[in-house]
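Researcher: For the annotation table, I need structure tokens for Citramalate synthase. Please keep the output clean. Sequence:
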Amino acid sequence: MKYHRMVENSTNYQRQTTMSKQLWIYDTTLRDGAQREGLSLSLEDKLHIARKLDQLGIPFIEGGWPGANPKDVQLFWRLTEEPLSQAEIVAFCSTRRPHTTAAEDPSLKPILSAGTIWITTFGKSWDLHVTESLKTSLEENLAMIQDTIEFFRSQGRRVIYDAEHWFDGYKNNPEYALETLKAAVAGGAEWLVLCDTNGGTLPHEVTAIAKTVVTALANWGETSVQVGIHTHNDSGTAVANALAAVMEGATMIQGTINGYGERCGNADLCTLIPNLQLKLGYSCIANEHLSKLSESSRFISEVVNLAPDDHAPFVGLSAFAHKGGIHVSAVERNPLTYEHIAPEEVGNKRRIVISDQSGLSNVLAKARNYGINLERDNPTSRQLLQQLKELENQGYQFEAAEASFELLMRSALGTRKQWFEIRGFQVHCDKSSLATCNSLATVKVIVSDRELLEVAEGNGPVSALDAALRKALQNFYPEIAEFQLRDYKVRILDGKAGTSAKTRVLVESSNGHQRWTTVGVSTNILDASYQAVVEGLEYGLMLQQQTPSNSVILAESSL
């Protein structure tokens, strides 16, 4: 049920919020998040994200600034035709221009045309911005705030007021900053959102200033107006600042998924929501939605075409990863020893990382993840551990290439299926002019006792080798057509050796539902790449065999 249908009036809403410790999450990924350098969203991207946020139970989703660009206009049109199931889509804009009226300002007409119940409008809190940016008087700025909100209210809209540069403005001129909030209240705003626009405020300052605002509202007799918080991460304290404001009475938290945003980003809702809900006891989203947080984070990272942050709190692939043997042994007995929450609460998974720091507990735990029951006294267990450490000493890195480790484990146990056998390969590069260097790869493969010789071109030697292998195998394994090489990383292990240095290659592959990473090491970069690419194809075939064709299973590093 939508927010404006749930709440009949502000007084009832105030009573409900106080009793249930309810917080209202306001997502601005589609606007503020999209201002991140290198992030560009198509209309379809925005729709996909909006629907995912709606499924996650986010109550307010800021769609953008209608009239600022065609994509935002089209987004509101599309969501009018196909509304979200529970979330409110919110239009965003600034207050009217100086020395006119809101009713006459043409920039506000597209905001009304967007057809949203809720509108967020921002105004200046900092007298420096009023005089330097707007080039107007402090009195006119107050009139702009009140007039704009009154106009939207007269058109039947509900208004959230974002007090831009609030904390800097308050620290510079507290009396005037509070006057801007009074103007917003007089205009009919239901929320006053305190914005740390430059991201330079620290938590103790947020605590003191937010407390002042809550006290001021009570002194003004405005018990129905609520306080919100909007923080940026330029000082690395965006999440801490938002938590500090909530502890002083803020009930709306604005932020973005994965902390996307301009400069250093915005407060990360994927960190804020679990902290607020699991640690502080507030209600943000339903528990069944909270368990989808990790999947939603990764889904949106794929839509925006940015690699997920593996080390992000709560939702990162490494958030519940255990590498040290002592840690693994303890977690196996009782997860509370090294985990602050159960990973399943946020839809994540515990991972046992395999490396040269591993003990036997890591190997046994990892085997159980693969459905392999290895006993501690089984000689294979010790052999695997010794082989692991020897290979990592040579430069292999299995904590980043768990698919290769599973294949290694299955080889030791004699359960690794041989899908094909590579008899040899050649790669040629031709650069006869200033044109692009073309590569040609030839591979000799045996599949089902048939020897195949295939040739393919690519824009580089690894691309050509991958294409030739796929060409040779697709007639036997059509599912290979679904596999994609998603990432390719090269690391020089001993740079002092110059051109004879050993090279480690990590290849990330995907079948559209799952991702896996394989590793190769050699003094020859093509040989290292060949190892990783071949194991990537082999592991993908093994997954296809294990996964029913009509099901979609998300791997621990799911898309």
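Researcher: And a one-line annotation?
Model: The first strand starts at residue 24 and ends at 27.
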